[in-house]
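Quick one: structure for this chain?
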Amino acid sequence: MLSHGHDPVATVHAAHETAAVLLHTGRAADDPEVTTRLVGLVEEIGLPTLAELWSERPSRSLPGALWRLYVLREWMVEHPEEAARDYAAGIRFTEPNHVVAGVDPTGPDEVRRVADSILRGVFDGDFAIALERAAAFCHVVAAGRADIAREYAGVRSAGRLQDAARDLVVCARMWRAGTLQ
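Got it. Here's what it folds into:
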């Protein structure tokens, strides 16, 4: 029996509907201002609001993919020095992913630029390519983090990034096949 009016079906429906509407709105708009607002959505409504909507959805779903993209962007923008350090350390292990991610040179400013560029691609580019760029970035950072980690937490974090990268690649395939919902 459900308590306090919580309807899990409505919650799932809301997650998928909001993700679909957000993506459709961004992709249908031919207005750079709309894209800029959608890229900066977290600054406007806050990460906890997106978490409430999307964080519990499967990673290989539209809301799950968008959740991961926004969380990744937020980390890249809020901690660009850490992201740049881990990224630079991982390049030698994942050169092809480095090329796809497109962080060059590997400084904090470039990390911030790529963070926005990836999310901008969701709305005004090829969504599958944006997912693949985010996955490539995660692969490079995970390799770097695993290489320089001095404690178990760093290795675990690298593993979670690798999982996210794999999920984003699968989401890109699903998008191309028309099955990402």
